């Protein structure tokens, strides 16, 4: 079930990236990572550290509260 959690987190950031109209590469560079790392975050293939989560939230003009609400809606309510 943990893998599903990270897929939900990744989906949140993918939605934010799409809404902002930026590429995977641009998003990765903005937070100091490689394109492959960011792609793995979006697809839920890697666990993301809190500092990186905060950096992505800042880049996408959102916050941890909005992420938590998204997780509650799409992860916890589907169990």
Instruction: Report how far apart the termini are.
Output: 9 Å
Count the beta strands.
0
The helix fraction, in percent, is 55-70%
Detail the poorly predicted runs.
none
Mean pLDDT: 95
User: What does the radius of gyration come to?
Assistant: 12 Å
Number of helices: 5
Sheet bearing the most strands, described?
A: none
DSSP strand (E) fraction?
under 5%
Structural class: mainly alpha
Order of helices and strands: HHHHH
| Molecular shape | globular
Report on this structure.
By secondary structure, this protein is mainly α. The protein is 70% helix and 0% strand. It has 5 helices and no strands. Helix 1 crosses helix 5 and helix 2 packs across helix 3. The mean pLDDT is 95.
Topology diagram in text:
Blueprint: H1 2-20, H2 24-30, H3 35-42, H4 50-59, H5 64-74
Helix pairs in contact: 1-5, 2-3
List keywords for this structure.
about 80 residues; mainly alpha; globular
In short:
This protein is mainly α. It contains 5 helices and no strands.
């Amino acid at each position: 079930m943990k893998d599903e959690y990270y897929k939900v987190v990744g989906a949140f950031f993918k939605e934010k990236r799409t809404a902002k109209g930026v590429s995977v590469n641009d998003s990765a560079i903005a937070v100091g990572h490689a394109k492959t790392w960011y792609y793995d975050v979006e697809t839920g293939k890697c666990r993301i550290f809190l500092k990186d989560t905060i950096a992505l939230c800042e880049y996408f003009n959102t916050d941890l509260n909005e992420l938590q609400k998204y997780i509650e809606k799409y992860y916890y309510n589907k169990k």
